[in-house]
Structures are given as C-alpha cells and as structure tokens.
Amino acid sequence: MEKHTVSVASLPLDDNTISNTKIKKADLLPDPESRLDSMEMKEKPLMDASIQFRDLTNTATKKESIARLIDKLDVENSLRYQKTVEDTYCNVYSYDYCYFSKVYLPTVWWKEESLEKVLNGEDLEAIFEQTVDRIYSSAIHDWFPKWGASFGWEKIATVDEMQHKVNANGGIGIICAKRREKGLSGHIVPVVPETDLHKAYRENGIVVYPLQSQAGKLNYNYFAEVRKDWWNDELYSSYVLYYHE
Description:
The protein is α+β, with helices and mostly antiparallel strands. The chain has one domain (59-244): endopeptidase fold (from Nostoc punctiforme) (Alpha-Beta Complex), CATH 3.90.1720. Helices cover 22% and strands 18% of the residues. The chain has 5 helices and 10 strands, in the order H-H-E-H-E-H-E-H-E-E-E-E-E-E-E. The model is unreliable at 1-13 (pLDDT under 50).
C-alpha cells in the first residue's frame, strides 16, 4: 500500500447486521490456572483480581482504564502471550483485551452441532472440546459478519474512522485478517485509544496506521508505523474492521 492510500475494509462476506436473539456467548469460566505468568488454560478467561475491567462511567474513564489494562496485560512480557514453536497468540490477547473491556469476542465458539442446538433454543453449557472448540483469527474474521451484530459489533469502513471512534468514545476496535492459505494463522489486533505518549500515524491528517496493541511473532504493547498496513499483506485474502462501544 502506498502511504497516502486510505485502507478500506474488504467485503468478503455478506454482513448480517440484524441481531440474532437466539445466539449466546460461548464463554468458559475463569480458571485459577489461567494466568499472565503461565502458558496454560489460554482458552479460559484470566482469573486475576488485580486486573481491572474497563470503567464505563464516561469517555475519560474508559480511555484511562484501557491504558491501565494494556499496561497490566503487558503483552510484550507476559508469558501467556509469548510465541511458541507451534503457535502465536494474537487471538488470546485480543480475547483478554475485549473480556476486560466488557465486550464479547470469542476465543472458543460453538461446534456445528452445538450451534444448531443453541439456535433451536436449547440451554447448552460451554464445555471445552465437547460443545465448544478454540476459534482462531481466520475463523473470527468470518465470525464477525455473521455474528458480530448479535454481540454489539459495528462494521467500520476505514482505519481512520476506527481510530476516531476509539479516541472519541473510549471504545474497542478490532482489525482481523484472514490467511489466504487455508489452515495457516490469520491475525487479529485491537485498535486502541491514543495517549500522550503513543499515537497513530497520520498523513495529511488521515490515519494511515492506527495505534494498535498485539501478540504475534513480535509483541507490542503499542505500535503504529512499525508494522505499516500489515492487514494488506499478500498473506491475507481479506480483512475486516469492527468497533464496539
């Protein structure tokens, strides 16, 4: 992408903008073994009373509490998010970021047969590797257009609009890219509010590279220009931009 180009989200799937009232979260319960200093139980929410949730009182408290959350999760150093020989953990970090921001993003999702039962009104419990399985970034890319609206997510057209909304409202932004080669990892990254020290990269007043926070091959508490427009890389077939208050 040339620097002056404005990134516009691709349209790989039909958007379902109508909330489905029958669908429900596929959330596992927090587990004492799910910790920042452990590689275990990454599919479960962190059980750590010292991690504060996003304060929804007003825009200022939302943004201040998001900054504290990024500092606390400390993706650059926390063992939970460090890459292994087998994998990277962008989806785990994005899930934790959203969980403590009081926004639903799946890290596990209903198996096909379980999903049918849920949509038929059955009160199904989320049980790992029985009724639910891990969901990775390429599948989350497809999840957003189908189920995002049911959980309060709004599709956004450009990264400039995304950064503006995140800054103005203290909301949650997500960039999610689908890997072109089936079976390989996509990528998912939160777009975060700008601070005095950390800024998005703009050209002519337009955000070209938003301020982000990620786990991956390299982990960054904050970054913008260093990874350019990674979502436009040829590795990915398409990407989506979503926002949640």
